[in-house]
UniProtKB/TrEMBL annotation:
Residues 314-329 have a biased composition (Basic and acidic residues). This is 2-oxoisovalerate dehydrogenase subunit alpha. Keywords: Oxidoreductase, Thiamine pyrophosphate. InterPro entries: Alpha-ketoacid_DH_E1_comp, DH_E1, Oxoisoval_DH_suAlpha_N_dom, THDP-binding. Its cofactor is thiamine diphosphate. The keyword NAD does not apply. PANTHER family: 2-OXOISOVALERATE DEHYDROGENASE SUBUNIT ALPHA, MITOCHONDRIAL. Its EC number is 1.2.4.4.
Length: 409
């Protein structure tokens, strides 16, 4: 034993830290259109390579190529582009609102807009989405009132969930948006359970969930995959690999050992690894998984490969742990610019229309801001105290009655 080396631990390190030049040379992507599109009925073990490759549709010139091209109508593409532009404009205003002291917290989804917008457009509002905290595009793509989102962020008197949630943790059942939880990972077993219940009732609704790369290290994620596989739950399980948690990179959650999509293989689930900044690729992969779920063939795990361009939240300073210009150098580009380029190539868009759409988005957000702020921002107005005692029990017991009496409501 004297000749054996001393044991040591490997602590994963990202490719760049503050002051370093961004380096993505370790990333290898399939060319757009190169990955095959298996039949929806393909057995998971026959498509294991899809967990390691990258489904792409848009090439560098903005052309849609390959078998995954969903061949969408230009009007659908324009709606998607406008929803992404509006989502980004909303994020910018609410981030400024935090800096102005109008809210206590906010989280942007810069660079990830294509994911929630495309998937929100594909699925019905009667299907249930179990989001994490960067899927505001899901609500925006479905026309949820911007002022209502702001009211929730400001926790004012018109907050739809009456001050019971942190800012940005929306809840909108009528829009297929399950209440966001601050406890990472919980939404995945919830989605699987909801999907199982739908199937048990003989319904035709499916579920979809989103989880970050870091939260795949939570036990909830793995428990959910077991149930999804065993019971063939009609659910789509998204892993949004945006490279960074609040201060640690995806390697801490195992992203250097294998892909996050590959985690599905051990559970006997089909997996797709997809360019999350390619609106068409996200659409096509989700459409594939949706058909599988609706035809009783079970769950699909989709890794959406993207990049978190903004801080993790308003509590975060990414300049302390990654190169300052890393987002600008991301090799898969910006989802809005890429869809814009594609529409221009099709002759269905222009730089002038882009400017007009951006101005219109700013105006929509400004109008919603005036409406919401007239009700009140943080600390200026709040839901009635009596709402603390409501909508928890169908019939109040004596303790609640006594507490309400003491408070005088």
């Amino acid at each position: 034993m004297k000749n054996t080396p001393t044991l040591s631990l490997r602590v994963p390190e990202p490719s760049g830290r503050p002051g370093d030049a961004p380096d993505f040379s370790h990333l290898q992507f399939d060319p757009a259109g190169a990955v095959s599109r298996p039949e929806v009925s393909t057995a998971p073990y026959e498509m294991r390579d899809h967990a390691f490759r990258l489904v792409r549709v848009l090439d560098d010139e903005g052309q849609a190529v390959g078998p995954w091209d969903p061949k969408l109508d230009p009007e659908v593409l324009r709606r998607g582009l406008k929803a992404m532009i509006l989502t980004r404009a909303f994020d910018e205003r609410m981030h400024r609102a935090h800096r102005q002291g109008k809210t206590s917290f906010y989280m942007k989804c810069t660079g990830e807009e294509a994911i929630a917008v495309a998937q929100g457009m594909i699925l019905s509002r009667e299907d249930m989405g179990f989001p994490t905290y960067r899927q505001q595009g899901l609500l925006i793509a479905r026309g949820y009132p911007l002022a209502s989102m702001m009211n929730q962020i400001y926790s004012n008197a018109e907050d739809p969930i009456k001050g019971r949630q942190l800012p940005i943790m929306y809840s909108a059942k009528d829009y297929g948006f399950f209440t966001i939880s601050g406890n990472l990972g919980t939404q995945v077993p919830q989605a699987v359970g909801w999907a199982m219940a739908s199937a048990y009732k003989g319904d035709d609704k499916i579920a979809i969930s989103w989880i970050g790369d870091g939260a795949t290290a939570e036990g909830d994620f793995h428990n959910a995959l077991t149930f999804a596989a065993v019971y063939r739950a009609p659910v789509i399980l998204n892993v949004v690999n945006n490279q960074w948690a609040i201060s640690s990179f995806m390697g801490i959650a195992g992203g250097l050992e294998t892909t996050f999509a590959a985690k599905a293989i051990g559970y006997g689930l089909p997996a797709l690894r997809v360019d999350g900044n390619d609106f068409l690729a996200v659409w096509a992969a989700t459409q594939w998984a949706e058909e599988r779920a609706r035809t009783n063939q079970g769950a699909t795990v989709i890794e959406l490969f993207t990049y978190r361009g903004a801080p993790h939240s308003t509590s975060d300073d990414p300049s302390r742990y990654r190169p300052g210009d890393e987002h600008e150098k991301w090799p898969l580009g910006d989802p809005i610019e890429r869809l814009k380029q594609h529409l221009i190539v099709l002759g269905e868009w222009s730089d002038e229309l882009q400017v007009e759409a951006e101005k219109d988005a700013v105006e929509q957000v400004r109008a919603a801001g005036k409406e919401s702020e007239a009700i009140g921002t943080l600390g200026q107005s709040r839901p009635s105290v009596k709402t603390m005692f409501e909508e928890v029990y169908a019939t109040e017991d004596w303790r609640l009655v006594e507490q309400r009496r003491e408070v005088g409501v």
